[in-house]
């Protein structure tokens, strides 16, 4: 459900311009009161998933179903505040995007945030959300976590469902997340999460 939540004031270019309005999570749950963002590969019903590419965004229909990880996090009480910039079609490790710009790395001024989950890492590092979903095929959570001074977890393949998400290399693609604290990283790991 949509509510009067406001989107973060994005001074670092972490969120895509086609990000949906914030969505409030359940009124109770282990993640109630926390705010999260999602890499622009996870579907949200009624919105086009852009995959970091304006061409992709302009040639694909709106999603019919919301990706299971987003649904699970909302059910656990977390509020979704937006979708984040990523490398175009997830095919880089720098975090730079020629369509939307490079999210600013507040932990290392003048340095790239790392990719492909650059916007998710940058948003967490800047305090625009408490945690963020990314994906990791060849380092796309681990690299930006290290560049931005965050906890970043690439759990076992299939631990986080990637149904209703844009694939890059399905036998390697793995859903993951970023946090600023070890405690929250552990809480997310132990919270119910839809599996593939």
Topology record:
Blueprint: E1 35-39, H1 54-59, H2 68-75, E2 79-84, H3 118-125, E3 131-136, H4 142-148, E4 151-153, E5 174-179, H5 182-190
Parallel strand pairs: 1-2, 1-3
Antiparallel strand pairs: 3-5, 4-5
Description:
Helices cover 19% and strands 13% of the residues. With 196 residues, it is α/β, with parallel strands linked by helices. The chain has a single domain, classed as Amidase signature (AS) enzymes (Alpha-Beta Complex), CATH 3.90.1300.10. The mean pLDDT is 94.
What is the assigned CATH homologous superfamily? Amidase signature (AS) domain
Major beta sheet, strand line-up: 2-1-3-5-4
Write the CATH architecture name: Alpha-Beta Complex
The Cα radius of gyration reads 15 Å
- What name does the CATH topology carry? Amidase signature (AS) enzymes
Task: Give the structural class.
Answer: alpha/beta
Order of helices and strands: EHHEHEHEEH
Q: For the record, give the distance between the C-alpha atoms at the N and C termini, rounded to a whole number.
A: 25 Å
Q: Please give the oligomerization state of what you see.
A: single chain
- CATH top-level class: Alpha Beta
Largest sheet geometry: 5 strands, mixed
Q: Can you tell me the number of structural domains?
A: 1
Task: Estimate percent helicity.
Answer: 10-25%
Features of this protein?
196 residues; alpha/beta; Amidase signature (AS) enzymes; 5-stranded mixed beta sheet; 5 helices
Task: Write a short abstract of this structure.
By secondary structure, the chain is an alpha/beta fold. The chain is built from five helices and five strands.
